[in-house]
Design a protein that fits this description.
The structure is a single chain. With 671 residues, this protein is mainly alpha-helical. It is built from 19 helices and 8 strands. The strands form 4 sheets. Strands 1-6 form a two-stranded antiparallel sheet. A two-stranded antiparallel sheet has the order 2-3. A hairpin with a 6-residue loop joins strand 4 and strand 5. The radius of gyration is 26 Å and the shape is globular.
Length: 671
């Protein structure tokens, strides 16, 4: 653990004399040596901000992979008797598309924002367990890579992302694709579980002085709810995956009807995880939008306590609705009635949030920046998805809609129009904080409109396809059976497929925007507070220092940063600016903390995570490889346990007079 000492206001010089040091110079001691950009520093880092960026880059890569899989699915269906994919390839493609988007993009991208901004928003220097945080990232990355190597080793999983038994047995899927799927998700599940514990402890125990629970930013609130959902949901899917792995690898009979087992056991285990998973995916985006709308409406969030508590209510009620995914399985009238009512009930706290967002904008001085546009689009598109979702609470209607494209339309309006639009709002909102440059607004608007138009072209027609009875996993359609007129399946399939290309073009423009922003010399460095932010992450440098804050702030208000910049006249209630962001930061840095303790870098997290896919390959192919993986686990855990708490190469030396920063000793890396 590196220790940074607070400088004296006077510094000794030769001969024992002392000279005064200006506050700005004194603060130089808190500027750790300029971070190297070598690959080694990223591999051994435990800095929550670097890990957040790494989560984001890896997740966006998988987003591109999942997007390409989706485009291939739609190209297959753009014309009758499609020949782009055969039936087996199509099954693999829709399985891996859904798996990639859910487990390898939306979840880890939300983790990217949580890792980077939660410590900043609560006034902490890092997460509670930095090395476990690094271990979680490497588990996610290696699990995702392990899962996708199945494409090159005999074929990917082909049973749908829900992997219903008995279709997931070796009888119906003899290749190793489902083995890769079950083990890969267990590895990524370790990342989710360790991350959940880490963030819960961080939020509950590491908030700045004065930051009560009801002064936390809404994004942090939603992250906290999500972590509790993960804490209890991941073990359920882990049990299911464990049983599936044993059935396929060791001839167990957990879901084998011939042996007296019940395949519905898998459905119950999967959906007890699967429906809370919907809120795991969407709540972080709700938090992002709840941060953005007040900033660009020039108003505080309407009904802050209600928004926070409704998020918690969604998390709680979400555990009681899983069987609405199983209405067609013959549960019986009592179970169907109970889960129908629960599904209707969960619409209430969700609808409350929509009302709060609308009322936040109502009467505000709206600025239609790109983050604001994506946030408003989330409110609109998620509302459409929510309304179609309520129809699934009505069991007779749901039974007719099950396994049709109507279901596909519903959950894409929720997850793309909701979760992904919220993440894109976060990209544009927090980009200048992370990278010092503001993404182009003009390119961003093109990016926004192409994505909105493309999304509605892609998923809107699926409502029509579903109501006309097109199955959601149909690899081909024929012109002769497409129907006529407005309800022609061919017409709506073509519109949907063209929409996927428009949507892809929008994502491509986002990538171009990133490259342009960081390569062009015409793009200036963004101001410290480009949006006139309200929350604590804007009360730091851009990007923040390794230790985040020179002094941990004391919190006296919700939206603490806003209240340090503005004051309200007690008589007229007029709000006037009393300080700039730079002045607020300078005032806070003028009284730095006595000691700053930062965690040391470590190789052990990546080495321990690397052992997990080795075990996976061993279970599939060779028990010798399995033994090697187990040996790696034992050795790396021992090495991690024996690693000293203070790394010699991170010792921090005070600066010489007039020197702008400290010096590190170049010693061998720890471990």
């Amino acid at each position: 653990m590196a220790i940074i000492e607070r400088p004296s206001s006077e510094v000794a010089v030769a001969g024992g004399a002392t000279v005064g040091v200006k506050p700005s110079e004194a603060l130089g001691v808190f500027k750790r040596p300029a971070a190297s950009t070598s690959w080694r520093d990223w591999i051994v880092t435990v800095d929550h901000k670097k890990l957040g960026i790494m989560y984001g880059v890896a997740a966006f890569f998988f987003f591109i992979v999942g997007g390409l899989e989706a485009v291939l699915i739609r190209l297959q269906l753009i014309a009758p008797d499609g020949k782009v994919l055969n039936a087996d390839q199509y099954n693999q493609m829709f399985t891996m598309h859904a798996t990639t988007m859910v487990f390898l993009f939306v979840m880890p991208m939300a983790a990217a924002f949580a890792n980077y901004f939660v410590p900043l928003q609560i006034g902490a220097r890092d997460v509670a367990f930095p090395r476990i945080n690094a271990f979680g990232f490497w588990c996610f990355l290696f699990g995702g890579i392990f899962l996708n190597t199945s494409w090159f080793l005999g074929g990917a999983a082909d049973g749908g992302w829900f992997m219903y038994a008995p279709n997931s047995s070796t009888l119906f899927s003899p290749s190793h694709g489902i083995d890769f799927w079950s083990m890969g998700l267990q590895i990524t599940g370790i990342a989710s579980l360790t991350g959940a514990i880490n963030l819960i402890v961080t939020i509950l125990n590491m908030r700045a002085p004065g930051m009560k629970m009801m002064r936390m930013p809404i994004f942090t609130w939603m992250v906290l709810v999500v972590q509790f959902l993960l804490l209890f949901a991941i073990p359920v899917i882990t049990v299911a995956l464990f049983l599936l792995t044993f059935q396929r690898s060791f001839d167990a009979t957990f879901f084998d009807v011939a042996s007296g087992a019940d395949p519905l056991l898998w459905q119950h285990l999967f959906w007890i995880f699967g429906h809370p998973e919907v809120y795991i995916l969407i709540l972080p985006s709700f938090g992002i939008v709840s941060e953005i709308l007040p900033v660009f409406s020039k108003k505080p969030l309407f009904g802050y306590p209600i928004v926070a508590m409704s998020g918690a209510a969604i998390g709680f009620v979400g555990w009681g609705v899983w069987a609405h995914h199983m209405f067609a399985s013959g549960l019986g009238p009592v179970s169907v009635t109970v889960f129908s009512l629960a599904t209707m009930a969960i619409a209430v706290p969700t609808g409350v949030k929509i009302v709060n967002w609308v009322m936040t904008m109502w009467g505000g001085k709206l600025s239609f920046t790109v983050p604001m546009l994506f946030s408003i689009a989330l409110v609109v598109q998620f509302t459409i998805g929510g309304l179609s979702g309520v129809t699934h609470a009505v069991a007779p209607s749901d039974t007719q809609q099950t396994d049709t494209y109507y279901i596909v339309a519903h959950f894409h309006y929720v997850l793309f129009g909701g979760a992904i639009f919220g993440l894109f709002a976060g990209f544009y909102y927090w980009w200048p904080k992370m990278f010092r440059k503001q993404l182009s607004e003009s390119l961003g608007r093109w990016n926004f409109w192409l994505m909105v138009i493309g999304m509605n072209m892609t998923f809107g027609p699926m409502h029509m396809l579903g109501l006309q009875g097109q199955p959601r996993r149909m690899a081909v359609w024929t012109e002769a059976r497409a129907g006529e007129g407005f309800f022609n399946l061919g017409f709506w399939n073509r519109i949907s497929s063209i929409g996927s290309l428009v949507l892809s073009l929008g994502v491509l423009l986002f990538i171009i925007n990133i490259v342009y922003t960081h390569k062009s010399k015409k793009v200036a460095i963004a101001p410290l507070d480009p949006w006139d932010g309200r929350t604590l992450e804007w009360m730091t440098d851009s990007p923040p220092k390794e230790h985040n804050f020179d002094s941990i702030p004391t919190i006296n208000n919700l939206d603490e940063f806003f209240h340090r910049k503005y004051a309200q006249d007690a008589t007229t209630h007029e709000i006037t600016q009393v300080a700039t962001a730079e002045e607020v930061l300078a005032e806070m840095n003028a009284h730095p903390d006595e000691h700053i303790h930062m965690p040391s870098r470590s190789y052990w997290p990546i080495l321990l995570a690397l052992a997990l896919p080795v075990i996976g390959y061993g279970l599939i192919y060779n028990r010798v490889i399995l033994a090697v993986g187990v040996a790696m686990i034992v050795l790396t855990m021992f090495g991690w346990a024996m690693e000293p708490s203070t790394a010699a190469d991170d010792d921090f030396d005070p600066p010489a007079p007039g020197d702008g920063g400290g010096h590190t000793k170049e010693l061998a890396p720890l471990g």
